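Why this split exists: single-chain examples teach little about how molecules sit against one another. For that reason, every record in the complexes split bundles all components of an assembly together and asks for one structure covering all of them. Below is a record exactly as it appears in the raw files.
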Amino acid sequence: MNAMTWLDRALDRLVLELDPPPTALVDRVLFAVRRANRADRRN
Amino acid sequence: MTANGSHDRSAEPGDLTGRLDELRDALREAIQEEPAPDGVGVAAILAEARAEDPPSRTTGRRTRPAPVATGAPRPWEGLIGPDRHAACLRAARDGDRRALDVLVAELTPLVWHVARGNSVGKEAAEDVVQTVWLALLRHLDRLVEPRALVGWLITTTRREAQRSRRAGRAQLPLSQEVAEQLTSEEWLPEPQALMEDRDRMLWAAFVQLPQRCQELLRLTVLAGRVEYRSVADALNMPRGSIGPTRGRCLRTLRDRLEGEEGWR
């Protein structure tokens, strides 16, 4: 494997492993979206 | 109860049915607030999106009809990429809440990396992500081309990230000392997560790349889901230049690393 290919793959791995979105973020967003949706329906 | 075993909701008084729907929504949200182990939350949402019956509402409060009959396949099933996003978006417009859940679960990593690639710290990035999805909810009916959803998300996230950074700067005078603190706290992962020196050096070099390079490299990491075409449109780059620009960014990274003592 040449240096650039190694770098490319290592960077992919680092971005995904070291800086992923927090696990609870999707739940937080879904909660906010549903609350906004309900408020829209009431109005 | 009907002959096939399902509840005949139309027989219930409208107000009572509406109240039951609200209680059901609140219960689901309460359950989903409980933290889940890594990866389980998103997987559960997607599994639920495939398996659960669409909402049936007969209260008259809803302005949009529930479009999918119980047990019918979801319109986005079996689709990938822009076709899947467009099908979800159309279903969400028609009132299928599960469609929006699928979009949030699948595209939140993209929105996150756009925010992080625009120099937004982790805590602020969470706020940016939420703001962008709420903006999509408000603009559901105004997106002219549903297949361009990813581009819309990237563009909106970049703007919101810039707004967030400006707001942050307004609250915190950026002295040299503060800037150095921010760099270490906001960008570098926790030391214990960096198991090897090479990873630490690589990440340190990555976060010193120009912002445009960092953003492009982050976005193309997700290229399985985000097509280069959407990335190019959102970054105002010619479509054929994404690959070469990415290559130049990687070469810059390599050159910086080769100048570091202890890299080889």
